[in-house]
Structures are given as C-alpha cells and as structure tokens.
Design brief:
Elements (H helix, E strand, L loop, with lengths): L5 E2 H12 L7 H13 L3 E7 L6 E6 L1 H12 L9 H13 L4 H24 L4 H26 L1 H7 L5
Antiparallel strand pairs: 1-3, 2-3
C-alpha cells in the first residue's frame, strides 16, 4: 500500500510528526535525499507546480523504490547500543505502509538471540575481566532491545490503530 505523490514540504511535515522528536532533520536534507532518490530511480517527479518561490515538485515512489523499501524493512539490524531508534522507525514504517511489523520483529528477535549466544560464549572464554565486562555491556543492551521488541509486538494492534494518519 504505497501512498499517493507528495511534495517535499509535506514529507518533511509527516516525518516531523512521526520521528522529529527523536531525530530531527532539516528541509535541505529532505530535498537532498529526494534528489538522490530520484537519481537512483527509487522516486520520480510526477508533477511540478509554480509556487511562491521555486517550483513545487511532487514525488512518488517507483516500483524499484518499493522493492528497495521491502528489502530494507525485511532486513534485521545487527544488535548494537542505541539501535532503538532504527527498530522503532522500521516498526512504524511497516505499520504505516501496510507491511508486517510482526514479521520484522520476529526476524529482529532471532538476530538478537543469535548475537546473545555469541556474546555469552565470548564472555565465558574471555581472556580478561575487561573483555568479560565488555561482553556484559553488550549483552545488557541486547536484553533491553529484546524487552522492547516483546513490548512492541504485544502492542502492534494498538499501534496499527494509532497510525491511521498518513506518513
């Protein structure tokens, strides 16, 4: 379920409503990114309207863009500290675009569990207390992410109801 075409200004406003508090962006970044997406064939300009300043372009995602978005949303992130904003972003984009946030969370949970197994083994075989402590640090962050993943999975229905507004 892809949205209709949008102006860069509208995309920035929608981004700010959804993600601006956690990761603000400037208008210039939006337009630079749109230009790169057009160059890469992931977005196309579908209309140009005169405005008070420069012409206002309307952008739409291409089929290649849809394919790239699907690939990105399906790809679990490697666990790391401060990953929550990426996890949150992927859950919200999956929900607002009609894709399965549950599938993403399941794949992400598997990736985190695999990382925990590797770190647990590394901690047991750590040559020093410092190496063991570093492994503990990483494990605790992954555990926190796992708690968030479970929490988000339990709230998907409520989140889906709340994300009825367009992104």
């Amino acid at each position: 379920m892809e949205e209709s075409d949008r102006h860069g200004y509208d995309l920035k406003q929608a981004y700010d409503r959804r993600f601006g508090a956690a990761k603000p962006i400037r208008f210039g970044q939006v337009y630079r990114t749109l230009a790169q997406l057009v160059r890469d064939g992931l977005v196309e300009i579908v209309g140009v309207e005169p405005g008070g300043g420069p012409d206002r372009k309307r952008y739409a995602i291409t089929q290649d863009g849809v394919t790239d978005l699907d690939r990105w949303l399906a790809e679990p992130e490697d666990p790391q500290p401060q990953l929550q904003t990426v996890l949150f972003t992927k859950v919200m984009l999956a929900l607002t675009s009609g894709r399965s946030a549950e599938s993403f969370l399941d794949a992400q949970r598997e990736r985190h569990m695999a990382a925990m197994r590797t770190l647990t083994l590394a901690r047991r075989e750590a040559p020093s207390s410092q190496d063991s402590l570093l492994a503990d640090y990483q494990l605790f962050h992954i555990e926190a992410d796992l708690r968030w993943i479970d929490h988000a999975a339990a709230r998907l229905a409520a989140l889906a109801d709340e994300t009825g507004d367009e992104l």
